[in-house]
Amino acid sequence: MNPNDLRYSETHEWARVEETPNGKVATVGITAFAVELLTDLVHIELPNVGTAVQAGQPFGEVESVKSVSDLNSPVDGEVIEVNDAIVDHLETLSNDPFGEGWLVKVKIADEAGLAQLMDHAAYEAQCREHE
Amino acid sequence: MPYLPNTISDQQAMLDAIGVSSTDELFAMIPDALRLKRPLDLPPGMGELELTRHMTALAARNLPAGQSAGFLGGGSYDHFIPAVVDVIASRSEFYTAYTPYQPEASQGTLQAMFEYQTLITQLTGMDVSNASMYDGASAAVEAVLMALSATRRKRVAVARSVHPETRQVLETYLTNLDVAIDLVDVPEGAVVPDDAQRAVTEQTACLLVQQPNFFGCLEPMDELSRIAHAQGALLVTVVDPISLGLLKRPGEYGADLVAAEGQSLGCPMGFGGPYLGILACSEKFVRRMPGRLVGETTDRRGKRCYVLTLQTREQHIRREKATSNICTNQGLLALRASVYLALMGPQGMRQVAELCLQKTRYALEQLTAGGVLKPAFNRPVLKEFTLRAAGENAAKVVEKALAEGMLVGPSLGRWYPELDGCLLVAVTEKRTRDDIDRLASLLA
Question: How crowded is residue B125: how many other Cβ atoms within 10 Å of its Cβ?
Answer without folding.
Answer: 16
